[in-house]
Fold these 4 entries.
Entry 1:
Amino acid sequence: MRPLRQRRQARQHRIGRVMATFAVDEVPWSWVARTRPGGRIVTPWGRLGHVALTVAEDGLSATGWMQGLAQFMPARGAGRGRVSYQQVRAAAAGPVDMRPAVRQLEPLRDDIHLRFALRVALPDVHITTAEDGDGLNAWLHDGSSWAALSAVAHQGGPRRLADELDAAWDRWLGDGSPALYDYGMTVEPHRQYVWCADPVTGPRWPLPV
């Protein structure tokens, strides 16, 4: 353990604010450690949204609310090695499930609050939408599993992403369709999670770190 004088000097050299101009999938703990208690960390997070965190008085966590939409250049290396839906579908082994789609896809394209909720619930799943001659379509993949949605849902790979999407969508509706502004984040040394409505009593979703 460092002597008391060194610890005091380290605290004195902490900064009051960190503002990132690139998106991160996880907030580096070093940002929290360098920010003094009561200081602010503002950063774009993930593929949607940006968050403003306040460092706790004991310096052992940072918590704050989502502030709105933001799409920034990702941190260097964040997208390295990412594969496309077409590559995942071509490589996926095993049977393909097919069933009728259970809901219209327009909210998946148009509702930013739904899209944010799905980003929280399924952080490793990439979702894209587009229209063609058959109407609106959606494609999902996590690097090894895939799903394609139109009037019919097809899915293959180790996970059943269409089923997971429906479950996350149902949970969002069951929670009252919260807006992205109802979500927040807590960052601790060895874990971080997104919560809804209340950082202590609200539902939470752990993030990979």
Note: The chain has two domains: 11-75+179-206, 85-174.
Entry 2:
Amino acid sequence: MSIFEYNGAAIIAMAGKNCVAIGSDLRFGVQFQTLATDYQKIYKIHDHLYLGLAGLGTDAQTLSQRFVFKHNLYKLREERNIKPSTFGEMVSSTLYEKRFGPYFCSPVIAGLEEAKDGTWQPYLCGMDTIGAIEKAHDFMVAGTAPDSLSGMCESTWKPDMEPDELFETLSQCLLSGVDRDALSGWGGIVNVITKDQVITRTLKGRMD
């Protein structure tokens, strides 16, 4: 078994109209043994920026603490929150620093970025263990079931979805994807990020 599949994960980030959503499953296991069903894989950086970390659980916790620390330093120095695109580059460089002994994590970044014309644009990106960035305008997946998650997203995503429709679409993709993966599941959690608020909802899934 690959070290990336040791704990199991399923993460989806999806773009909508002036909103973005990111969701993950809640299972924490050691290979095929389930240890917890309330393990969160999504970390809040600030109100308009969330980070999902799929891969080895210990490395995910280490990385999340490092990124929160780096954002706090940035906020002290610049007196503003970091932009999602800038944060993506920071995550990439942090991973590349350790390329000869990498963290076993695949980050997914979802955020809203204010454009020059005053509108809020979704920002989505993912990367591998050494920080090679892949940006997307529609959706980004990571975890132990990327094929089934990608297939569901490709068949159901459409542009300019409102927050409620975006939540419903991402939730159905997440639940359907983890049903085809023994290493993830046991419900999920979805964060929908808009300009004014973050809506967090918990999903109930199959418990087998």
Note: The chain has a mean pLDDT of 90.
Entry 3:
Amino acid sequence: MKEQTLQAKSQIVDEIKEKIGKAQSVVLVDYRGLNVEELTELRSQYRKAGVEYKVYKNTMMRFAFKDSGLEDFNEFLTGPNAVAFGYDDPVQAAKVTSEFAKEHEKLEIKAGIVDGKVIDINSVKDLANLPSREVLIAQVLGGFNAPIQGFANVLQGTVRNLVYVLNAIAEQQEA
């Protein structure tokens, strides 16, 4: 019986480690004080954003974060905690959490992980203020497009001026 319990706990720790390894970002929150309706709304918002929200026992998370080389994260594992794993976009977990925390003051952001580095509350909030990956890509592509468009306008202006000069020369020769 004791061996089964140990094996079950080991599987949970392995599951958490796997999620940490796959996630581009992790956000730790204290959900104390939120009612069932608010928690359901939070889970729904996470789901829509492609973020996985899970509640684990702190002892299981301590083992998983320690085994993942993120021991610094363990200092935040006090009280009831939930973890949001952002897989596709490193900004989404922080963005959804921050937006929800603005409307529901009882949701407390504790810390986060981005690119294997532990970040504090302020860094999580800064991360939330970044545009999404799609917006950043569009901005970069727009930045690439602007010089090309400017170059095309310059060439177009040069051709236009050449036409004016040739037209003026033709008018002079006719006169």
Note: The CA atoms of residues 109 and 153 lie 49 Å apart.
Entry 4:
Amino acid sequence: MSRSLDICIASQQLTVLENERVIKRYPVSTAKKGPGQLKGSECTPTGRHKIRAKIGAGAAINSVFIGRRFTGEIYTPQLAAAEPKRDWILSRILWLSGLEPGFNRYGEVDTAWRYIYIHGCPDHLMLGMPASHGCIRMHNADVIELFDSIDAGCPVFIHE
């Protein structure tokens, strides 16, 4: 299976390709501040990437992650109300790594060390518009389905 992911910032859509043929499309939410590579920018990095690591296999839907570790919590509206400032990373994490030295890899533009992920978020935050702090957010059921359908090392192309 030769799968790859194409993420279009303009359409807020992630496309799964198999041997360059579209097999699935998902809505996503990229960065509120738009595209960009720089550390601390809160922008979604563009260019060629790969899935560096898959985190959360087997975790329950809406499992909460901090620092790529399951906290033991399950997201609920009550938990959200108690911690309104939290940037929720839920269900699964696909950690990205840039492949283009000087553009999205190494130094102040390194996607992996910016901790840029494809991850689940509270489903009500998926409004079809950019809203994240740099990551690519997905509905929880969608990110679990995607996680189960690709391997670590899967190519990812992010563009405007």
Note: The two ends are 27 Å apart (CA to CA).
